[in-house]
Structure formats: C-alpha cells, structure tokens
Amino acid sequence: MSTNPRKKWAYLFAEADPSRRDLLGGKGAGLAQMTSMGLPVPPGFTITTEACLAYYESGDQFPPGLWEQTVKALGAVEKALGKKLGDPHNPLLVSVRSGARFSMPGMMDTVLNLGLNSETVAGLGHLTGDPRFAYDSYRRFLHMFGKTVLGLKDEAFEETLEKAKARAKARTDADLSAEDLKALVQEYQVIIKTGTGQDFPSDPMKQLELAIKAVFASWNNKRAIDYRTFQGIPHNLGTAVNVQAMVFGNLGADSASGVAFTRDPATGEKALYGEYLANAQGEDVVAGIRTPRKISDLKKEMPQAYRELERMAQQLEREYRDAQDLEFTIEHSKLYMLQTRSAKRTAPAAVKMAVAMVAEGLITKEEALLRVEPAQIYQLLLPRFDETDKQRIIKRGALLARGLNASPGAASGAAIFDADRAQELGSRGESVILVRPETNPDDVHGMLHAKGILTARGGATSHAAVVARGLGKPCVSGCETLKVDTVARTFETDGRVIQEGEEISLDGSTGEVFQGHIATVEPKFSEEKDLVTILDWANQVKRLGVWANADYPTDAAKALEFGAEGIGLCRTEHMFFQTERLPIVHKMILAAAEATALEDEAARLEIEAASTEADSPIHHRLTEARKKVGKSSAVKDYHSALAELGKFQTQDFAGLFRVMAGRPVIIRLIDPPLHEFLPKYEDLLVEVTKLRITGESPKLLEEKERLLQEVDSMREMNPMLGLRGIRLSILFGAIADMQVRAILSAACQVLGEGIPVHPEIMIPLVGHVGEIKTVRERLEVVAQKVQAELKCSIPYKFGTMIELPRAALTADEIARYAEFFSFGTNDLTQTTYGISRDDAEGKFLLQYVRRGILPENPFQVLDRQGVGKLIRMAVELGRKTRPELHVGICGEHGGDPSSIQFCHEAGLDYVSCSPYRVPVARLAAAQAALEQRERDK
Amino acid sequence: MSTNPRKKWAYLFAEADPSRRDLLGGKGAGLAQMTSMGLPVPPGFTITTEACLAYYESGDQFPPGLWEQTVKALGAVEKALGKKLGDPHNPLLVSVRSGARFSMPGMMDTVLNLGLNSETVAGLGHLTGDPRFAYDSYRRFLHMFGKTVLGLKDEAFEETLEKAKARAKARTDADLSAEDLKALVQEYQVIIKTGTGQDFPSDPMKQLELAIKAVFASWNNKRAIDYRTFQGIPHNLGTAVNVQAMVFGNLGADSASGVAFTRDPATGEKALYGEYLANAQGEDVVAGIRTPRKISDLKKEMPQAYRELERMAQQLEREYRDAQDLEFTIEHSKLYMLQTRSAKRTAPAAVKMAVAMVAEGLITKEEALLRVEPAQIYQLLLPRFDETDKQRIIKRGALLARGLNASPGAASGAAIFDADRAQELGSRGESVILVRPETNPDDVHGMLHAKGILTARGGATSHAAVVARGLGKPCVSGCETLKVDTVARTFETDGRVIQEGEEISLDGSTGEVFQGHIATVEPKFSEEKDLVTILDWANQVKRLGVWANADYPTDAAKALEFGAEGIGLCRTEHMFFQTERLPIVHKMILAAAEATALEDEAARLEIEAASTEADSPIHHRLTEARKKVGKSSAVKDYHSALAELGKFQTQDFAGLFRVMAGRPVIIRLIDPPLHEFLPKYEDLLVEVTKLRITGESPKLLEEKERLLQEVDSMREMNPMLGLRGIRLSILFGAIADMQVRAILSAACQVLGEGIPVHPEIMIPLVGHVGEIKTVRERLEVVAQKVQAELKCSIPYKFGTMIELPRAALTADEIARYAEFFSFGTNDLTQTTYGISRDDAEGKFLLQYVRRGILPENPFQVLDRQGVGKLIRMAVELGRKTRPELHVGICGEHGGDPSSIQFCHEAGLDYVSCSPYRVPVARLAAAQAALEQRERDK
C-alpha cells in the first residue's frame, strides 16, 4: 500500500462517492449518499479503510498526511456549522464511529460527544440553556472515552454512577440533577487518572486523535476477529472512521432518537416500522433503560418529523432499491438522518418484500431472486410452534434440554422408546416422538410413523438427522444431557424423568426439547403465494433441474407439490425394513450364500458342459449339481423370499410411477450390506452368552447360536467399504434380478393404466468398469425378458452412482455402460476424505471445524477443492465417452445452496434433494444461473 | 482385416522372415530361423496368424487364396523331398501343429502322420520295409485325427487299444504285431464312422484341410481361452499353423526322439541337458509309457547325432543369445531339428545363466538384467525345505492341508495357539508356529517370535499375510479346512487333530502344511555370488532408490544387507504392542480423553485471558481450569505413561539410527485407532454378561464394566476411516509430542556417538492442508525445543503420507507443509476403490479376479488407471509447489515389480518395501530404467 502523503485519506460526506463502499465503509457510504440526496445529515467526514490499513502497516502510526487531512476536514465542518471543536463559547461536538465494508454490528467502537472538557461543557450548557444536559453529555463522553479509547472497564464507571444515584436518591439517570452530574464528572476523571496514570486528555484535538486510533484498533479486537471468522468476512479490509457533528435527541421533549425500517423486517409489510425514545440519545434506545415507543406514535407526537422521516424512507428505498434500516435523531423538532443500510429480515419478510418490490417496479424479477437466502425458505414450509404457546409453556418451566437443531420443524407427541411401538401407535394416527440413544436403519419404520425424532447421541449428519431431514420431520440429535433408558422406557435429564407415553415437544429449528404439548402452525405451500411466485421466477431462470429423493409415493407427492421435476433417488432398501417384510428379508439373506453357491456351481458347470461331449464327467457333475440345487431348502427359501419381496417392490414402484406420471424416476438397486438387515451381533452375543450360562431352553440357544454364527460370518470391519452396492448385485445376482423385474413389471402395469413411465435403474458403488459391465449385461437380459413376457415396451435407462474416487477417475470407461451418472456425494466425501461420517462427526469433525482446521463440515457443504475436483473430472471424462450423458447429484449436498452453485458451475444437469429442500434448491439453482450471467457479462 | 486374395497367407520355412514371430508364431519363427541357418529341418510351411484371424472373420471359412497357397506350398515340399501327399507308392506324411505368438504349451492341437489311408499305409510299409511301423503310424494318426479334428473322445480309442492288447496278450503297444495293428486300424475306422456318422476322410487333402481348420478352432477352445486369461495373453492374436514333413524317431534302434536344453533349466549349469527315447515318436517322450533316458546316454548310443546336436545347440544359443529348449528326432541315425524356443528356467538357473552369459560375452549386463524375473529372486533368499526330506515326510502321509501361499519360505516348529505363549517360547529360542483363526495387531508380538504363521481365514493380503511378508516369515493363510479351537488349543483338519506343542511345518511358497519336522536350507545373501553380481549391475542402471520398511534394528540390518538405501517406513505403533509396554499403552489411552479435555480447556482459556484484563472472569476460570488439571489423576496417568513410552521409543529409534548410520530413516507418527490397542469389545461384553449373571466378583464386574464402557465409547463403525493417523495427533497432541521428542532425543544421542543421523518424521493420513499445517507447526516447536535442550542440531525433515484421495487431489496445498511425500498405497487403494481389504479379500475380491471382473487384485498390483492416476496427479501438483519434493512409496506395492515399474514411470524418487523384497525391487527398478531407455530411443 502506498503511503504517498498526497494520498486522500479523508473525504467530507459532501465530496465522497457513495458507490465507494470499499473505501468509505457501509456507514460512510450511506452518509455520503444521503448527503448527496440533500437529506438532513449533520456534516462530517470519513477517514478511509485504506487509512486504517496504512495505520497498521506503519506500526500503529497515522500515515503521512492523515492528520493534516483530518484537521482540514474538521475545519470544513466547523465552518459549515459556525462552531469550533474546543471553542469554550460555541463548541462543536462530534461522534467518532467505525464503519467497515460489511456490517459488523456491535463489534467495533463508537465515541459520542467528543470535544467536551471542563471549558466546553460550560459553553454547551450556556448555548443550549441546559447545564444538566451539558453535564449529562460530558459524563457519558467520559465513560465512553474511558472505556473505548483508554481501555478501562465499564464496572468502575457503572458502580460510581450507581453510588451517585443512591446518594441523590435518584431512581433513574434522568433523576440526577446538573449538580449530581457535575460531581459524577469529577469522579469519572479520578477513575481515568487512577486507571491510566494520566489525566483525562482535555484537549479536544488529542481526544479526536486517540478516538480515531481506537476505532482503527477495534478492527482487530478479538470479538471483531471472531465475528469475521464466523461470518467469513476477510480480515484484510480494515475499517473506515466517521467523524460527524453531534446532534442531540436528548434536548427535551421536542427531541428524540430512533431507528426505523422502511418495511416490517419480520413480516415484510410495506409500512414504516421501528421505535424511538423522546429526549434520549441513540444508545438509550438500544440500552433498554426506558421502553422505546412504536414509530407510529411519533406520527401523533411529532407529525412534521414523522412525515419527513416517512418521505425520506421512501426516497432512500427507491434510491437503494431495497428495504432500509435507518437511524435518526430529532433535535428540537428537526429531523437528522444518521445512518441508512440494507435491512436484515426474516424469511417470510424477504419473500414478501422481494415480490412486492417487483410489483412496485422497484426491482426486476432477477434481482428479487437474489434478495432471498435459499437456506431461509426451508423454514417457511415446516410446521412451527405457535410462538405465544411456546412462551407460555417456557414460563411454566417446560424446557427440558437443548440438543443439536438437526432437522427443523416442530412437533409434539408421546415419547416412545422403540421403533416398533412408534410405528404401531403412529399408524393408528397417534402423535409420537421417537426417543432413542441414537438411530440406525432398523429404526426407519418407526421414524416414518413418528412426528419427530429425539436422540441423545449423533451429530448434524448422524443417521437420525439425515433421515429426519429427508422425511422433513423435526429432529433434535446429540442431546447429550439425556439419559435414555430403553429398558425402563424413560429418559432423564437434569434430574427430571419422562416416562414412555408422556407428551413432549421438539423444536428442530432451535434444538429445544419441552415437556408437554405446544400448538403448531402448519404452512401450506400453495397458500404461500409470494413464495410460489418467487419459485416460478426461479424456474424461468435456472438451468439445473431440481429432482427429489423419495422412497414412497407420499414423499413423491410432496416433492411434486414443491416443484420437483423427477425422482433422483429411490432407496429400495428402505422398503425392506417395513415390519411385515423384515421376516421375508431375513429368510432371503440367511439363504442367500448357500443358494448362490449351489446355483453358481451349476451355472459354471453348464457353461463348461456346453463345450464338452455328452458323456464327459462334466455332464455327470452338472446333473449332480442340478440335483443339489433342486433339493436345497436354501435355494427354495431364497427364491420364495425373493418372489414375495418382488411382489411388494412391484407395488411400491407402481405407486411411485403413478404419482410421478411420466417424470423420470431413478430407482437404486439394493445398496447396504445385507447384515444391516439382521439383528446386531453384539445383541446376539449377549443372548447366547446368557443362554449358555443359564442352560435354559437349549433349543433356543441352538437357534440363536446358528444365527450368531451367520451374523458373525457376515459382519465386517468396515461395512462402509465392504460387501454392498454393486458388489451385492454381482455376488447375489438374483436380488438385482428381482428388483429389475419389479421395476419393469410395475412400469408395464402403470403404462397399461394409461400413465406414461420413465424408470431409470441406478447401480450403486461402482468402482471399476468390469463391475458395471457384468451387472448391466445381466440385468439387460432380465429387462428384455420382462418386457417380452408382459408384451410392453418401457423407455428405461441404466445408470450408476459415482460415489467412489475410482469411479470418478475412470468415468470415461464407466460411461460406456451408464446412460446417466448420479453423484453420491455422501459416500464420495467419505472415501475422498477417508472419513467415516458416523464415526467422525462426534469424535473429531466438529472439533476440526471449530478449530478452523477445516473451513466447514464437508458433509454439509460440498468440498470443492477435493470432492469437487473429482466431480468435475467425472463429468468431463463421462461426457467424452457419451456426450449425451445425463448427470446429477443425489447426496445430501443436493439441497445445500453453496453445493448447488457448484453443481451449476460443474455443468450438472440436475440436483436431487429431499422433498422439503426442493424449493431451496430451485431458488439456489436460479441464483447460480444469475451469478453465472453476471460472470459471463 | 483385409482379405485381399493376393495376400500372402502361407510361407515356406525357407522363405519366411524369422523375426516375424507375430505372423509366424513362435514355432514357425523357430523353424524358419533354423532353416535359414542351414540346420537339418524337415521342409514345411507356416500358415500365418493373420490367416487364422481372417478365418474367424469370414465365419470359420478359409479366406480367399489360403487354400490355393497351401496347395502350392505343399507342392514345394513334395518337390523338395520327391514324395507326394497321397501317393500310394511314395507317400509324403506331414504333421500339422499350432504355433501362437506366445507359448501356450499343451493348450492347442497337433496332428501327426497326416496323409495316411489304406493305400498310402501300404506304400509306407513298403518304402520303410516295416509294415508294422506303417500300421502303428496309421493307428496313431486315426486316434489323433479322430480326437483332435473330429472331436471324438479319447476313451473309445483307448478302450479298443486295451482290448486289442488283451486279445494279443501284449504287455505294451510295442508288443502288438503288424496284423494286430491292422485290425486295430479297422476298429478305429468303425469308431470314427459311428461317432461322426461319416466315413473317415481317406483323401489326404481333405485331411489336411480339416486339420488346419481344427488348429484354427483350437485357438478358441475353453482351455486355451482360460490359459490366456490367466497368463494375460491377448485373445485377438490368433495362432499360426505349421505343416511339416514327418520324420520318424520310431524306425528302429537307430532312430529316436527327444528334448534338450542348452543349459540345465534347474541349476543353470552350462551343459546339454534333456532326455530322449530310442525308437519312439516325440509324443512318447512326454507320454511316460517308457522312461526316457538322460541326454548324456545319447553320447554313447549315437555319438555322431549327439555331437551334431551339441553343435547345433551351441549355434542356436549364440543365434538367440539365450538358453534354448529344443525338440529333435533322429531317423535312421540322421538328426532333424523340430523346434527351438527360449528355455523356461528356475530362479537360480535364471540368475546363473544371466551372469555366465555376460562372462561369455554372449549378452550385455543390461540384457542380463532383463533375463531374470524380479518376482523369482524373492524365493532365493528365503529358507526352504530340503526337498529330499520333504518328499520323505510326504510319503509318510504328513501333508495335513493346503492354504494360500501367503508369504514364502519354510519353517518347522511347535504349533502354538496364542501370541503371548508364542512370544514366551519364541524368546526362549524355541521354534514356534503361531496358529490362529486369523491374526490382528494384538498378535504381532507373537508373530515376531514365531518361525511361521498359519491361519484358517484371510486372503493373500490379510493381516497375517502382510505382516509375515514384512517380517520375511513363511505364512500359510486362508487354510479353510482347518478348524482352530483356541480354547482347547488344538486344530483339526480332515479328521486329524493337532495338539498344542506338536511340531508342524509350513511351506509358505506352496501353501502346504505338514505334520512333523522338515529340515530346511537357509541361503546366505553374500554367498549367492551371481545374485549379488546381478544386483550390483542393477544398481548401476536403476534410477529409483530402494528403501525398506523396517520397525526394528534387526529388520533394518537385514534390509541393509540386501542393499536398502534408507528406511522408508518405521511403524512406531508396532513397538507399542510389546508385552512390557502394553500396560503402559493402556494406561495412556484410558486417560487420554479426560486429560486432553482438561488441558485443552486450560489452554483455550490461557489464550483468551492473554487478551483480557487481569481481573476479568476469564482469569478466574483459567485458575480453576489449571487447578483441575493439577488435581486430575487422568492428567497424571497420561503424562507419566507418555514419559515411560517416550523412554522406550527413544531407545528404539536410537537403535535404528545406529544401524542405518546416516542413511535416511522415515519414522511414521502413531497411526492406528487407539482402541486397537485395547481388549476387544465383544470379549469384554461376554465377560461382563457372564459376571452379571453369575454374580461372582462384583468388584471385577465393576472394573470390566468400566472398561467395556470406555471401549464402547471408542469403537467405530468403520475404524479404517475413523479416529487415526494425523487425527490422533490433532486430538491427542501430547502423543505426537512424545514421539517427536523421542525421535530428536535419539538422534542427538546417536549423533553424540559420532554416527550421522537423518531422521524424517512422517505424518500419516492427511486429507486437508489445515491438518498438516496445525500438526507441523505444533511439532516444529517441539523439535526446536528438544534440540535446544540437548544442544545439538539434527538435519530432520517433516513429510506426509499420501494415502487418501483428497491428499492426492490437493497435493499442491499439502506440499506447502511437507518436505517429502510417501504414498501409502494400501490405504490409497482402499479409499480410491472404496474397498476394505480386510472385508473384501475373502468375501468378493478374489472372486472378482477369478471371474475377470478385475484384471488383478489391486492390493497386490497397483491399479494404474485409478490409484495410479491419483499418484501421478499428486507428484505433479506437489512438485509444482515444491520442486525439490522427495517422493516415494511405502505401501506393499513398493515390493511388486509391476508397481515398481509404474513408480519409475511416475517419476518417484524411491520405493520402500519389506527387507526381503529389497533385492526384488532393485532388479525391478533396473528393468524399469532399461525399458524407459528402450522407449526413449
């Protein structure tokens, strides 16, 4: 950075270019803007962010020219007002405030009433005819200067004030007389002398110099650094400093200070909104000593100022083309504007404002799309607690605990401690909250029928959290104070015990758990007119398709309502977990290995026999092998179980096809390791150990021992990387056959009903082209056969998930056998990072993020450097082999705005996410397209 | 392929270009070569491999011109010999043999004596004056033609022959008279008529046509396809067909057939080696009906023919500049050469021949290096069973079982069923074979002290196999017939039970397990003069460094002896498993979480307090936190355990540094999940369940319950992807501190003894630059501190393993904090493929390879398409950031020749492998360099 002494470090508000927010900071730019519009802004000047950086570079010294320019700018202000800083007769007072490029509310420092000393305070009293006001201003200045500039603690000043009030028997500060305040000022000066070892600097120019330096320094205080780190604001921007003539809202009943919004930041309603305090300085409004009044009251109290404020608010909104957050002061009935900035707003307000502003012709539809945070609108669609009812119950002490806000929404219901019972009661229409130490795939049928899920363990991407978000159900996970006793069917927290059946309430947006019932409000998407409008606009702009992950017709219907254009992932195995199917699944799994071994042997011999003469020993062995197959009860069990499951699956898929009515439906073949469907090894081990010792029921023992052995032979060190995905379809081809048969049969059936169908069959976990070649060739035969049998022709596709690094690295080869790719970014992140999500989240990943080792949790926000590089590579390689390759993403990242932006940039065709995130994804996709346009300009 | 009718499909031996092995096949090229050298080769011609491919392309039809050219070439042969195919008076007989580019011994078909029918057989009898010979030739032809060309079964011919012998009361074929054979010929013709429904084709030209087609077809018979798949020979090469005038070794006592090697293929000794049979055709030598005689006997029997053979053998060896495998026939004392090809040889022979041929000036050193298979020489260095003793014991029925030949070498010792006892006995000097259902890291101390390892489960890259290969100890794994009962301390196989303490023997090179003792022979590297010579030449040629993975000074010394240039991987945690250290390790682990939490909290507060005033509440909290740290028994246990371990580790490292005397030693910081050092969860669960039911010893129950809880909180779903590697160094920094302190202390100590040291500290499992940045910065402080304390200066380096895809993808960022990379290709393969080696090998990976889904097991041969792509990327990105980055590999692939070739091509600086593979790697590295030179030409 140049420290050229001729460099301009300070700009009068009247001469600054309001568009140079980078140089002037947000506050300075706003003041310059308002000044240029002729609004009543007390004169002042801005010391630039460059000056701040130069100050740091010079080792905390003003750069050459800065002080001279400050003095000169101050002179211009003095001249404009006919007052002078330090003039005992006609003193100018100024405020010194920080103002960075990005808003950092409350993070940095402010000094008001600068310029007072024992001489000027008298002049101020004389000038205003109000010595009490003058001393009140002085004591405020001393306190603020002492704390902010000299680094003394609040407490000493506060305690002294309290003593003074006690002495004067004053109830509030306002009850202190001029004399009381004068005494207080002297005491404050002692505090400063004691605390710093030096006299309070009575020279106003010295005060100014120190205050500017203090503001510069505040850019790098711990609070400010932490805030920037948290918000992702760069640390090398520096802050500007605004020096501005004071106006006083505390000069009597015809004076006031306040804040105002041009539209209601909570609802978005177009009306001046805010609050003010008569006879007060700005900080009093925030301090909460007196309760501020609604801005509408100002209309009655000071109608002239109100009208002006309203006019200026509209003027500023038009100028900025966005809702503004204003600070103002009224001094003796005259309105002054002190700040304008873009207003923060809730999700409903953001949507309402954006649509309204388009209607008003203030902004374009494209701008409206950029005015809403995609992540925010997720909340708009979920049931939420009625706030009044929630406050009522909190007052009665109903808050039990806090956990992670794992999946938003709100629900009340009976606490139930196992999935079976949750399903039983839930399917009867009762409201149930499933409470578990943690959940696993065995619990899904219970989660399906529960209103909400509460777990003691597990992070934001634990099984419970992921499934709940997928289902759009509230979930509080990792609620660590909870002691869940599934045997006693109770949980305990903070000494309170909740029995099974007692009603509890979960707020998934805050992570709160309550005892008792809270009324909820459920939004209807179609009634959220403004949201529907915005999302219609989004569809006009976005390039990415938005599909949904849905396993059941009800999910699919929800997704369609939210605007999904297809099903990007139907996890067939979720259907296996339903209570009436699980015994069939067990039968199939326990017979699979033996049946497959026998059948594979026969098939192998058949091939061999085909090329040998009729009486070679091979033929004999083939006959023997076929006999074994024919006699095997495993083979019988295996195929009868598969046939039964096939019927269920056909119904499931037909249901999905009917709902989706011709839109693409991607169905994934079985993915999890088979042992996940069986009882847990550890549970069986305990059972068997008990039975062995007690000697009870030897028959049961024998049965359990056999099961234990089976489960033992199947369990894996690292199931994530074990026998799952396509590996199952290779080893147990009959399962995949059954699924493909069910998909095609269902498709034929629905097509017969006159409804078009577009099934796409997705093969998961491919790592090597040899795998997909083998499986696709086998399954094509099945698909052709089913169509021939049913005499129908289905426009189906085969494709694969890209969820292993090797699949991405060799995507050109894999694309030879895949008509579409779908990135499974959950597993791709796990393998690329070598991190097991289940293990890592609680044990080290969250700590990594907290300690800044990772910028964010890669399971929530897609890791562009690593995983993203593989995705780009796969898209490029895949399209090299097959230019028309259709590419999407179906991992959880498909619903995350930042990740969706990446998907757009990487050239994907669509994203697929849980139904409730479809609106989020539509908006994020539109924003990504708009940002692209901006870059392409 | 063009089927231009003018294309040349057939070449006379005399006109063919011997260098066109691709066109002529190996046999044809050899015949052309010998013919061009003027050796006595019966005339003939070769039909090209192109003709074979064209035949397939035309739908099993001869391409245009082929038959005409065949007839013409036959004419030339007839003219040369003055005989004619089918001439009843002067019949020419020919052989028709396949001959592919790569040798496929026994895989394809051959027909001898073609041209015989009822007329020519009489002519042949007349011509030779030996009607018996003529009918013998005819019946051989009918049998061979019937089987090979007409597809009939051997059995019918064999049975008829047996009956004929019975009828004639003949003991052998030779006892059958001309009349007997004549009758047999008629019976054979009936078999052919019955089997094919047609008469035997008596027209010799028809015979020839059918025979050529049969040879073409034999290229695609199942045996041939399986063989090529197994050997990695492409399927699209086709075979050539050689048609050659017959000569007869069965024309009486002055005739013979035989095979000869120019040098002994078993020992490499330079002397004619082989065997022959007088009065026999070539197939009789192989058939084993009569026992062939040693070639040296020929010298006495037919001195003239022998001298010629010897002369021609030398001539051919000079021509081919390699040992040859020859086929010859002597017809009435005249020698004919029928085949020459490069001789297959054993490992010792390959080495001896290569060195001798350089001495003889036959080949260059570079050529010598290419003549030895690197994989072979591994065997040269391991103890092996005395073959005589092994045969002796096999005869007595001592072979118990066969498993996988997981790690070569041979050992005998007492069967011992747990690691503790194996260590106890082994350390007393007793010979022990550790027998386990499977092994895990808990067993390493036992493996260290065992002579060999036998497991019932686990593949070629199971824990047992990998560790055994690392230790250079024989291992038979996956011996599935074994039922190991660790409680009863017995194993059973095939009905035989072996008690603990009984002596057994393992042959790790064959996978055999024997009952009883077998004497072993242990080679000494320095005495393997030829091998040492070859490896010296390798060092002159290779570019790659060859380092070794070694955890202990003894391993390091072995590695040095074999020529290692550094230690590429010292796994510090192996030292933790030693019996006297394990209790200390347990103490450390059980205290780690609590101690770290307390200390981290205090450290966090310390940082916060540094920027706040002295009496802020932060300081109070800091004081409290420090008090807690001071009082905590966990903190005390943690640090006292670490201090004790530190002492052990310092000794360990000092030992390594002394042995390596200034060569680089890469020490990896702790890598496995801490729970791997604790008792198994399942074992504790059973213990606790038992104690709960029996109610015995409540105190023990309490203790075990506490331990169970600890282990439960630490165990992981997917430990491979869990809290391990650098993640441990981040969460439990004190462990890494201890290790770095030990490394630097040991280095200072050894340097003080006057021995130079070059320690390199390797941080495992980095995935994100933030991780290595954090850890390296912390450990640099420790390293500096130790050196300052000990007043010494060590030339150390910090580096990392690249073993996660993300590390490879972001290697440019990671190289900012790493001075070296070492590819951990075991884990990199696991994560890139998404395959857990432990789970996959037995469950599906071997089946994948068997079914041809994967070309080979990626844990044995580096996967170039996937993992290799990441390696190339990482090398390029890493060197972009840090051009002097030193790059190696320390996964198991570092000892695999194909993978070493890849490492050379990818520009790595060195490979590191287990000590016993160092010679292999040296040779493979030299070969890679030579192949590079060839490509660069």
What is the topology?
2 copies of one chain form a homodimer.
Chain A: E1 10-12, H1 21-36, E2 44-47, H2 49-57, H3 66-81, E3 94-100, E4 110-114, H4 120-128, H5 131-148, H6 154-167, H7 178-196, H8 204-218, H9 222-231, E5 239-245, E6 256-261, E7 273-278, H10 282-287, E8 293-294, H11 295-301, H12 303-320, E9 324-331, E10 334-342, H13 347-359, H14 365-370, H15 374-380, E11 384-385, H16 387-395, E12 399-402, E13 404-407, E14 410-416, H17 419-427, E15 432-436, H18 444-449, E16 452-455, H19 463-471, E17 475-477, E18 483-485, E19 490-493, E20 496-499, E21 503-507, E22 512-515, E23 520-521, H20 529-541, E24 545-549, H21 553-561, E25 567-571, H22 572-576, H23 582-610, H24 617-631, H25 633-660, E26 664-668, H26 681-694, H27 698-714, H28 726-731, H29 733-752, E27 758-763, H30 769-790, E28 797-802, H31 805-809, H32 811-814, E29 820-823, H33 825-833, H34 837-850, H35 867-881, E30 886-889, H36 897-905, E31 910-913, H37 918-936
Parallel strand pairs in A: 14-15, 15-16, 16-17, 24-25, 24-31, 25-26, 26-27, 27-28, 28-29, 29-30, 30-31
Antiparallel strand pairs in A: 1-2, 2-5, 3-4, 3-5, 6-7, 6-9, 7-8, 9-10, 11-23, 12-22, 13-17, 14-21, 18-19, 19-20, 21-22
Helix pairs in contact in A: 4-5, 5-7, 6-7, 11-12, 13-20, 15-37, 20-37, 21-25, 23-24, 23-25, 25-29, 26-27, 29-30, 36-37
